[in-house]
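hey so u asked for the seq, here:
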Amino acid sequence: MIEIARIQAWAFRSPTKRPVATSFGVMHDRPAVLIRVEDRDGVFGWGEAFANWPAAGAEHRVRLLQMDIAQLVLNKPAATPAEFFHQLADQTRIRAVQCGEVGPFSQVLAGLDIAIWDLAARRAGLPLRKFIRQDAADQVPAYASGIQINAAAEILPAARMAGHQRFKVKVGFNMPTDIALVHDVQTDLSGEETLACDANQAWNLEQACAFVDGVAGLPLHWLEEPMPVFTDRTKWQELARQSSIPLAGGENIIGVPEFGKAIDAGHLSVVQPDVAKWGGITGCLAVAQQALRAGRRYCPHFLGAGIGLVASAELLAGVGGDGQLEVDFNANPLRTMFLDGEKEPIIRGAWQCSDKPGLGVEALPNDITQFQTLHVDLC
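ran it, structure tokens below
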């Protein structure tokens, strides 16, 4: 039985010299919401809630946890992390709909779920991946992400030096320029290297088809979110029929039923839920298993701080399959401070998992306090 006696949450903001640009907006700092839970025996766990958008999101998520959700968790026993997750989802559903904030509630629940899974795995003395599946691998394929296409020529050499062999570039800014630069990047890749593209929901069907036509013949690994998640499913299916490039998506889908509809519709070859955005370990594990059963690839989406990245790696290893771990290659101390040597453990294109219990995170790094904007301690 798990009974949470204490919850702590922090909002952080790290300045960035190079803003992170997407087709729909620019991040001018790197925010993070980190959550620590502790049971009555002093066993603890760490989690992370999505906070990239809107710009004021990080502090809002901490206050949402403090004032609306914590009382539903503290001193409320549950047999498993999954039981906690489903109880909270049921208890907060009307609140989330009432205020039109399904996303923020989902994100806080995701962070709590990660923390409770970490606690449970730590209590069992197992790395999270081994807690999920006893024979989980100790490394997973990874790729360097968050690379704006205009900066790819500068960034890819550094990503190679860091051990990466797979890359994903952000497109959706200017169609002719994007297409020309994708051709240039692909031409410069070696035989073992791969390239994927992420449009961040930039286009309608006609524009997405134009991009697909413009990069025809290139062996792109996948095309991620070419259209908004709310685009009619028949248009997604039409694009999938016209595209020789596998389509990817999932970071903006909420709920196992909605993922099930997308998987059954057949247009997504690569399914990408985000552990910090919806579902935590509980929800994303269910979706990953569903995707694998349907013959799809599970590749977790993630663009945040270090705890969520490690959770994504452990979940991917625990699930198995031929998925790849997304590793943001933009500078972000809120990510690298949590990693030994302050760099990602990438060797020959693979993330090396830790043998420590749970997520392997014991405490916040000392230097992280300089970025703190809010802290709450609840018991």
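The domain at 130-352 is CATH 3.20.20.120 (TIM Barrel). The two ends are 18 Å apart (CA to CA).
lmk if thats what u needed
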